[in-house]
Amino acid sequence: MAIAKNPDYKRIATEEAWAPTHIIERFQKLVGTIGDPGFDSLWGFYSTSPSQRAQQVFARLQDLGERRLADMDACGIDVAVLSLTSPGVQCFDAATATSLARVANDELAEACRQRPDRFAAVASFGPLEPANAAKEIERAVSQLGMKGAIFNSHTHGQYLSDPKFWDIFAVCEQLQVPLYLHPQTPPPAMIKPFLEAGLDGAVFGFGVETGLHMLRILTSGVFDRFPKLQMCIGHMGEALPYWMYRLDYMHGVTVRSKRYECLQPLQRRISDYLKENVYVTSSGYGWEPAIRFAQQELGVDRVLYAMDYPYEYEADEVRALDSMNIPLADKKKFFQTNAERIFRL
Known about the structure:
This protein is an alpha/beta fold. The protein is about 50% helix and about 10% strand. It contains 16 helices and eight strands. The model has no long low-confidence stretch (mean pLDDT about 95).
């Protein structure tokens, strides 16, 4: 049974994946050729497996028309904030990534122009050319009307905590748009114990690697350099909100002990940056206790809804979150107004 629209709030889903056929075809050609076991595991499965899950995800990813809208209607989703699926353009060489990001952003912006009542989007970019990445983010936001930017964690094992990438943070702060950190599989240097246990994907590996990336950004001083920068991270913050006490304590004592040259004093605690510079979304987390904890510790203005379509497409999760035992005003913030504010919908 389809879920009816809610009279008290809109349901805005903020981490909804898409990929055009021409990029998926490029993914398929790369499988087994670039020395990345994580990429091979992810796209070797979704592009070749005969399983029902793989086939459904594969088909739904490529649809920006009636099938996606029907799926949204069936779950009562009013608006989807769309983004290019993992690993986006980041599996390609620098020049190809920059070129493909522009094409993908144009395609996604056109879909939003066709259905502005149902779709919004965030922009892709090629991190390995930071200056060009900043230019593409600026073009996508200023000319195409996109609502922010997204990157799929590491790029060939490199992390945005390295200052050589900080033009990307600078342009997002300047434009006052959020930068969304989305998962991908762990890089070759860390994937072996995950892969040999079948834990490299969304079940665990995604969260570990992406949480690591966010923590590297937090400890590198990015938010001291760009204090107005706002970032989003899915899957209830990839566990970081639940580690805040220990992160504050152990980071503090480690810095004071001068154990690592790379860990320098910060202006604030790790938890302060999480509460003031980071939004978390519920993608893949139809679980009230986790959401309520994040609302309590980060603030109700910092937690917003996402489905994680088509990788997670469960109407029962929407029903469960509709039924959360929280004040209606807070529920409206969760489903609607936080997203409207941060993405300027």
